[in-house]
Design brief:
single chain; 215 residues; 10 helices
Length: 215
C-alpha cells in the first residue's frame, strides 16, 4: 500500500523516537549494572541483556564501556545542568533568587532522583579511573561552577553582594550538596539529618555572609 505524504513525514520521527527510547533503555540498564558490579567488573553483554537488546546494538550508540558511562553522565546530569544554566541566566531576578533556583534544582532534580546514584558511582570509581573524574568535571562540575560565578558576578556588580568571595570560590556554594550526598550514603541511618533544612540553612548563612551586615 502506498504511504501518504503525512505517513512518510511521520516515519522518520517515529524512527528517531524509537532510537531515543532504545538509547534510554541502554542508559538505564547501564546505571543498574554499573552500580551492582562496579565500573571495572561491569560487562556490556550484561547491560545489553538488562536493556533487552543485542550487545551489538550498544555499539550503534557508543564505542566502549567508558563512552557509555560518559553518555550516561551527559544525558542524565550534563544536559539538565546546561538547561538550568540557560534558564537561570535568562531570568530577570536578583542574584539571591537565582541562587535559590539553583539550590532548588540541586535538591529536587539531583539529590532527589536517581541522578545522585551516578554521582556516587563517580566518587567510588574516580580514584581508579581518573578519566571518569575528568569527564564528570567537564560535563557537570565546570558548568555548575560557571553558572555560580555568573550569578555571583551579577550580585557583586549590582551591589547586592558586598564581597566577591563566591566569584573566587564558587565551590563553597556546592560543598553542602557533597556533604548531603556523603552523609546520605554512609551515616543517614546512624545520625539522620534533614537534608532539605540543612541546605536551606546553608543558603541563608551564605547569603548573610555575601551581603554583609545590615545597615
Amino acid at each position: 500500500m502506498t504511504q501518504s505524504p503525512r505517513d512518510r513525514r511521520r516515519a522518520p520521527a517515529r524512527k528517531e523516537e524509537d532510537r531515543q527510547a532504545k538509547l534510554q533503555a541502554i542508559l538505564d540498564a547501564a546505571l543498574d549494572v554499573f552500580l551492582e558490579k562496579g565500573f571495572t567488573d561491569a560487562r556490556l553483554d550484561e547491560v545489553a541483556a538488562r536493556a533487552g537488546v543485542a550487545k551489538g546494538t550498544i555499539y550503534l550508540y557508543v564505542p566502549s564501556k567508558q563512552a557509555l558511562l560518559e553518555a550516561l553522565i551527559q544525558s542524565a546530569i550534563g544536559g539538565p545542568i546546561s538547561q538550568i544554566e540557560a534558564r537561570i541566566l535568562s531570568l530577570d531576578a536578583s542574584a539571591e533568587d537565582k541562587l535559590r533556583g539553583l539550590f532548588a534544582f540541586l535538591r529536587k532534580e539531583i539529590l532527589g532522583t536517581r541522578r545522585v546514584d551516578i554521582i556516587r558511582l563517580i566518587l567510588s570509581e574516580a580514584g581508579r579511573f581518573p578519566q571518569l573524574a575528568e569527564i564528570y568535571h567537564r560535563e557537570v562540575i565546570s558548568k555548575g561552577l560557571r553558572l555560580l560565578r555568573s550569578v555571583a558576578e551579577q550580585g557583586v556588580a549590582s551591589g547586592e553582594f558586598g564581597t566577591d568571595a563566591l566569584v573566587r570560590f564558587p565551590q563553597l556554594a556546592i560543598a553542602p550538596g557533597l556533604l548531603a550526598l556523603l552523609w546520605s550514603s554512609f551515616f543517614q541511618t546512624i545520625d539522620p539529618i534533614d537534608m532539605e533544612a540543612m541546605l536551606e540553612t546553608h543558603l541563608a548563612l551564605m547569603m548573610k555572609a555575601l551581603k554583609g551586615p545590615s545597615p
